[in-house]
Every structure is written in C-alpha cells, then in structure tokens.
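Appendix C: a fully annotated inverse folding record. The material below is reproduced so that readers can follow the format used throughout the book. The structure is listed first as tokens, followed by the designed sequence.
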C-alpha cells in the first residue's frame, strides 16, 4: 500500500508516517525509484502495534526501543496492550459516571460531596502499569500517577478560580496564532493545571483539545469566555503536543 492509503486506513496523517520513517520507527518495505513509499502487510502489523502504544501514551523513542528489542514478543505485547486498555476503559467508565453525576448535580438533581467529584481520577493502583514498568522501565510508561489535590472547599474554590483565570488569558489571545510564544506559554499553564486535578499525558491532552470542538457541551461552556475559544485551544494544544513529542 502507498503512504496515502496507509494513512487513510490507519486514521493518521501522511505527515505522521513520514515522521515515523524519518526517525526509524517504521520504515516502509520498499521505496520506488520515484521516491514513493510502499508498505507491506508486515509494515501494517507493526504500525498497529505502534498505534496501540501511542494510545497508551508511550513516547516514540521508547516504542522504538521496545520494538527493536531482542526480547520483543508480539503476542506477549498484545496481551499486555489488551489488559492495559481494559484497565483504561474501566477508569474511563468510572470517570464518565462521575461526569454524568456532576452534570446532574449542576442541574440540581442530586448533590455530590467533594470525594465523589474525584472518583475515577486515582490512577495509582493500576497493576498493568506496574507490569509494564517492570518489563520496559519507568521511562517507557506513560506517567499516569497524578498528585492528589486537596479536596477541601477552599481547595475547590481555588481550582475554579485558577481555571477561569487561564480561560480568560486564552480568550484574550485567541486572535493570535495558536503557535505564538504567548499562546504556547498559557497552553502550558493549562496542561500543568489539568495535571493538578487529574493526569494527562501529552497525547491525551491533544485528544482533549479535539473534544473541546467535537462535543458541543464543551464548546458551549468554553466559548462563554470568548467566541471561537474552543477551536483556538484545540489548535494551540495540538501545537503544544507536536512540539513536546519531537
């Protein structure tokens, strides 16, 4: 398959495939005399493994080391991928439940105490993460463990105020380029802030930015600070992540 076909079927960009080739992570089996990349079925299988690792927020450098390791066992890795994804799904299900309760609380249908607001944010007891760290080392595993923020009423007020300050800063910059130095400085503030209340790898941070635009509920709330802010944040977050993973 040619690079455009691979990009389409895998749901990634041609630029991403070119980057994987450039860093030696995924070299196509053949390059024609005209310079066209031709990918084999084995290349596609390797790409699938890479994307599983990326879904779990492994850095590209570490993925390359794992796939090139003499001890690499594809079946063993697939089993670990499955277990880690199942653990991730369980956490996401719990967080969705927390979010839905929060929405009901916002509408006045139920009351939530401070403990309930953070159910699902504790990633410290992930056994499969421990297994992956033991197998590939700490640097090869996404850092899921977030420091717990205080859950006092004062703590919640401080968080809310800090969040609004950052939104207002971003709203004031939304007519600038998302890649500008000022924009990236405040987006970094947003990334650091979110990791105070949860745990976001750079890849999940990028996905969150996409949700800001794709989910009208997020769009509506964010754009209260300024029309088009959600789109601006998505673009700035993408620039931040792309710079971080180079």
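Designed amino acids, in order:
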């Amino acid at each position: 398959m040619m690079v455009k076909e691979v990009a389409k079927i895998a749901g990634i960009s041609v630029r991403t495939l070119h980057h994987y080739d450039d860093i030696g992570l995924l070299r196509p089996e053949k390059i024609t005399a005209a310079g066209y990349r031709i990918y084999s079925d084995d290349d596609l299988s390797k790409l699938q493994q890479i994307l599983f690792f990326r879904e779990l927020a492994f850095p590209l450098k570490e993925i390359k080391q794992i796939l090139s390791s003499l001890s690499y066992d594809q079946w063993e890795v697939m089993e670990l991928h499955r277990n880690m994804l199942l653990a991730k799904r369980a956490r996401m299900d719990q967080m969705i439940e927390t979010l839905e309760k929060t929405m009901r609380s916002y509408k006045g249908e139920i009351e939530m105490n401070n403990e309930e607001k953070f159910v699902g944010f504790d990633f410290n007891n992930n056994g499969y993460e421990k297994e992956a760290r033991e197998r590939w080392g700490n640097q090869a595993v996404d850092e899921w463990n977030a420091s717990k923020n205080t859950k006092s009423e004062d703590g919640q007020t401080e968080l809310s105020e800090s969040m609004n300050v950052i939104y207002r800063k971003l709203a004031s910059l939304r007519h600038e380029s998302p890649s500008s130095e000022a924009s990236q400085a405040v987006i970094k503030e947003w990334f650091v802030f979110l990791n105070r209340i949860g745990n976001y790898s750079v890849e999940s941070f990028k996905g969150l930015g996409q949700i800001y635009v794709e989910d009208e509920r997020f769009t509506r709330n964010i754009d209260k600070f300024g029309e088009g802010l959600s789109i601006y944040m998505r673009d700035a977050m993408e620039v931040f992540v792309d710079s971080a993973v180079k």
